[in-house]
Amino acid sequence: MENKKNAAFGIDIGGTNTVMAVVSRDGEILGQCSMPTPGHDDFRDYIVAINSKLQQLASDTCGISNIAGIGVGAPNGNFYSGRIDFAPNLPWKGKLPLAETLQEVSGLPVTVTNDANAAAMGEYAYGVAKGMKHFIMITLGTGVGSGIVINGEIVYGHDGFAGELGHSIIDFSDDARPCGCGRKGCLEAYTSATGVARTARQFLSERSDDSLLRKLDVEKITSKDVYDAAIQGDRLALNIYEYTGEILGKAISNFITFSAPEAIVLFGGLAQAGDILLDPIRKAMDKYTLSLWQGKVKLLVSSLKSSNAALLGASALVW
After folding, report:
1. Taking the model in full, what pTM does it have?
2. Strand pairing partners for 217?
3. How far is residue 180's CA from residue 184's CA, in Å, rounded to a whole number?
4. Are residues 167 and 179 in contact, defined by beta-carbon separation less than 8 angstroms?
5. Of 187, 167, 132, 77, which is closest to residue 302 (Cα–Cα)?
6. Backbone dihedral angles phi then psi of residue 129, each to the nearest 5 degrees
7. I need a labelling partner for 162 at 20 to 30 A (CA). Which of 82, 168, 216, 272 fits?
8. What is the rounded CA–CA span in Å between residue 167 and residue 178?
């Protein structure tokens, strides 16, 4: 039977804040609020606090009787089990029964996925990938996440954790960069915002040419500093983006071989750098993509506000 209710809760759980929203079926955010993620020693107490916020949101907007369910995007969120499994940036450790506890407390059906998949669902339902049955979402933030959509469905794999493209290894040399996952040479170590800052420190130590970045404390340089220098025409900063874009473009050419997507959609702060990042990505894609797919795969930047994408995608899980 078709669900006649016209709104859903979307929740985006981050290490610092938990953001909640009431979202209409057509993607309008009717109301939202947030609360700090830390602050509750017991995980169940945290869930009870979330439910209190949700009830107030519903009361202030469309009423709880119009809420069809709850969708949650969370770090290490597992679609199959509904748990958060060993998320390093959350205050509670181990396997957290998120869906089970929230459903018990709220009385509403709950669906869970990881944050990158939630962003992909938001793009599929409401963004530049609307109507696309095959695309790959790559999130370029502090880390590199991804959501793979095939035949209109997120790929979860047998255990719920498929799609960790940020942890595909692109450098197998002995001196490859360490990654937060414990291995070396992962894509994330080179093409995340953190990776851009690491490249800046590497270039500054290896090269002697002038750069605006030399005026900064090298240990505190951020990807934003590199962007600010690049848009002023700083050659070293532009070379950092060329280096980053080439690595990402090469990786994307391999991802295309895997799933033959209609588009690659980039999301996150680093994706907002525009053509200084997109041009070297395109150049590498053109060079390394198998001829079978050359010219067939679009490179797009998300049209959703970064603050809303995970909320919209999480709520879309309900439908």
Report:
1. 0.89
2. none
3. 9
4. yes
5. 132
6. -95, 10
7. 272
8. 11
